[in-house]
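Problem 12. The chain below contains 383 residues. Write out its predicted structure in token notation.
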Amino acid sequence: MKPSLLIISFSEISKDARVLKQVRAFSEAYRVTTCGFGAAPLVGVEHLRVDVPTVGRAHRALRFPLAAIDLVAAKLRVFPWIYARIPYVGEARRHLSGRRFNVALANDVDTIALAIDVAGRDRVHADLHEFFPGIHDDPTALGRRQTAYLTWLVRRYAAKAKSVTTVSAGIAHAYRAYGFDCEVVTNATPRYELSPTPVGLPIRLVHSGNAQPSRQLDLIMRAAAETTADVTPDLYLMPNDAMYLAKLKSLAAELGPRVRVCDPLPQSQLVEALNAYDVGVHVLPPTSFNNANALPNKFFDYVQSRLGLIIGPSPEMARTLHEHGFGAVSADFSVDAIRTRMDELTPDLVEHWKQRSHLAAEALSADSQIQVWARAIALIAAR
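Solution.
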């Protein structure tokens, strides 16, 4: 009989590219059960659905616990009480009550405790999508409370997992201070059998991703509006922050017809749709530790789409880009620096980048990355 494997994530797994890769990778060799928000991610896989918390519910749930943290700031024993009373944690615990699994794959720091309950600490692999002690870098009282809580989760549970992976070398290095080592599984995109499309004028620039203020997408928009190169930039943005998205649309109207803010593309269609473009632009200011050490899925989406890239000097992205030679890195994160890179664009240069991206597509696909998870899960299952 196949070993049983729980994949748990407090996200909408069917829309979570990283977790969805796990489900697809293990569904043949293991009896997979998923536990998370939203609909079942894959036909034929058992899914334990947890209600997606609304903003209102989340606010009510957190109001009292945050006050409790203030009252006993130095006494970490309050944190188990807080965790146990988060509504979606309680619902997941009820779904999993009485269940046992040969292996549990816990995504992010807030699922590891549940995974240990149903599999035992020696049978849990933790996949940490971010550096959790660095999520809230702001010095406010709320930021300090949240950092203390997330740091407790890391020390209490992530350090107990049998094995751990994370998304970049910089984040893996940071976790060593908490007493455990991580292997790296990048957010690489599955390989697509595509070819670079011809480059003409105007050169087609594209950005796809979340509309979040910390990403400062106005920098890309202003640079694209000011460049002397013949370009047309399109931004496909998820409505994560409706107010911020409205501001970006208003800015696009001010900047003129060259810059367009478009509705998001379905993840299943994204890579093939982006193949019609020439250069993917992703300049992520280091507004937090995680942003500074990011190696995001959109970077790999652009490679699978066979695009050239313009990025900011984020060390993880810049290292990979320089290794394969499929784009340019701006000197800093300013409009002037981004515009300078755009000013250099010519059809011949972009054609070269796209060919380099094509050559790198196999090496930078998810296939090799998934093997890191496969080895870790197999070692646990064999115990």
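Discussion. The CA atoms of residues 202 and 235 lie 16 Å apart. Students who got a different answer should revisit the alignment rule from Section 12.3.
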